[in-house]
């Protein structure tokens, strides 16, 4: 295993900034949801930030990233602005999907973030198709797809795994195992705890580790990305992580004990990074980052509140007589 100590503090600070941005964005999104400013579902990423941040840092800007409905973290890590993300949650026309997608359907073509998808596991074949297109075109791009451990029993996951291995596609399939598929513990949903073993049946490379440190995520997923780019071989990576909130805002999370939750929060990777950087004398840099992010999130909320609603003219293109009918 590659250690985290070889990396510069500058990289660590940059990754801390992204994790802190996602944390503060989602805390304010939760507040707005409770105030009735956001409708529909809201699945928060709080606690899982090092997975998206570490993985995206190992990608190149031209690579593709696809995820499921817990998509705010990946979108922000990939480069979406807090304004576009918050406005989408508020259902405003200035949002990343013009206010029509909402929390589960973030999309950012500029940064090759090809969507959050609401159908569990249904996006895996889409990611595999993206990787197939890259191999066919010989464009050197890698696709990375994120899913929860609850999706590994879905047929689409296995169809995607089968084709990715058979056709040797440049893809990294990342299972973010937060231990509770919706509200059901890992022990009650999977007969084998080690999700990465599913790669063996398809002759695919695999890796498995805990997301205790963002730089370890960067290293481990970086190895899988390098494999995809240099040999066009797929990898299944299981990253054990933990979400501090319920499955969605409507979930009080009573299927786990307060003691378990508090124990996990004491190992919060965001605080681990902060403590480590503070110990290295970067207190002033940390305070500057946090002040800038606080101002950015405050601006994003204000921007979302003041942005206009989508008009009926926006719906025309989405009908069978609109642009998609051509």
UniProtKB/TrEMBL annotation:
InterPro entries: DH_E1 (IPR001017), PDH_E1_Alpha_Subunit (IPR050642), Pyrv_DH_E1_asu_subgrp-y (IPR017597), THDP-binding (IPR029061). Residues 17-312 form the Dehydrogenase E1 component domain. Residues 253-268 have a biased composition (Basic and acidic residues). Keywords: Oxidoreductase, Pyruvate, Thiamine pyrophosphate. SUPFAM superfamilies: Thiamin diphosphate-binding fold (THDP-binding). It catalyses: N(6)-[(R)-lipoyl]-L-lysyl-[protein] + pyruvate + H(+) = N(6)-[(R)-S(8)-acetyldihydrolipoyl]-L-lysyl-[protein] + CO2. The keyword Chaperone does not apply. Its cofactor is thiamine diphosphate. Residues 248-268, 303-326 are annotated as: Disordered. It comes from the Bacteria. Its EC number is 1.2.4.1. PANTHER family: PYRUVATE DEHYDROGENASE E1 COMPONENT SUBUNIT ALPHA (PTHR11516:SF60), PYRUVATE DEHYDROGENASE E1 COMPONENT, ALPHA SUBUNIT BACTERIAL AND ORGANELLAR (PTHR11516). The pyruvate dehydrogenase complex catalyzes the overall conversion of pyruvate to acetyl-CoA and CO(2). This is Pyruvate dehydrogenase E1 component subunit alpha. It comes from Polyangium mundeleinium.
């Amino acid at each position: 295993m590659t250690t985290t100590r070889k990396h510069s503090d500058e990289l660590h600070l940059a990754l801390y900034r992204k994790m802190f941005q996602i944390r503060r964005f989602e805390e304010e999104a939760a507040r707005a949801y409770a105030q009735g400013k956001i409708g529909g579902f809201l699945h928060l990423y709080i606690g899982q930030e090092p997975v998206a941040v570490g993985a995206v840092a190992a990608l190149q800007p031209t690579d593709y990233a696809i995820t499921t409905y817990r998509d705010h973290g990946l979108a922000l890590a990939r480069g979406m602005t807090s304004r576009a993300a918050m406005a989408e949650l508020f259902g405003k026309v200035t949002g990343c999907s013009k206010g029509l997608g909402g929390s589960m359907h973030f999309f950012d073509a500029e940064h090759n973030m090809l969507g959050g998808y609401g159908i569990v596991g249904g996006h895996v074949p889409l990611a595999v198709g993206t990787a197939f297109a890259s191999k066919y075109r010989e464009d050197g791009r890698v696709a990375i797809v994120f899913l929860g451990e609850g999706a590994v029993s879905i047929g689409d996951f296995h169809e995607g795994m089968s084709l990715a291995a058979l056709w040797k596609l440049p893809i990294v399939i990342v299972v973010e195992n937060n231990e509770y598929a919706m509200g059901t513990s890992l022990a009650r949903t999977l007969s084998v705890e080690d999700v990465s073993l599913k790669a063996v049946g398809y002759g695919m490379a695999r890796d498995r580790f805990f997301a205790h440190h963002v730089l370890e995520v960067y290293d481990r997923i970086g190895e899988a990305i390098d494999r995809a780019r240099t040999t066009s071989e797929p990898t299944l990576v299981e990253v054990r992580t933990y979400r501090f909130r319920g499955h969605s805002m409507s979930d009080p999370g009573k299927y786990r004990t307060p003691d378990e939750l508090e124990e996990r929060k004491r190992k919060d990777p965001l605080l681990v990074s902060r403590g480590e950087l503070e110990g290295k004398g970067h207190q002033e840099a940390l305070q500057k980052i946090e002040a800038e992010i606080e101002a950015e999130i405050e601006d994003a909320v204000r921007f979302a509140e003041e942005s206009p609603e989508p008009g009926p003219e926006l719906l025309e293109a989405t009908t069978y007589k609109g642009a998609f009918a051509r």
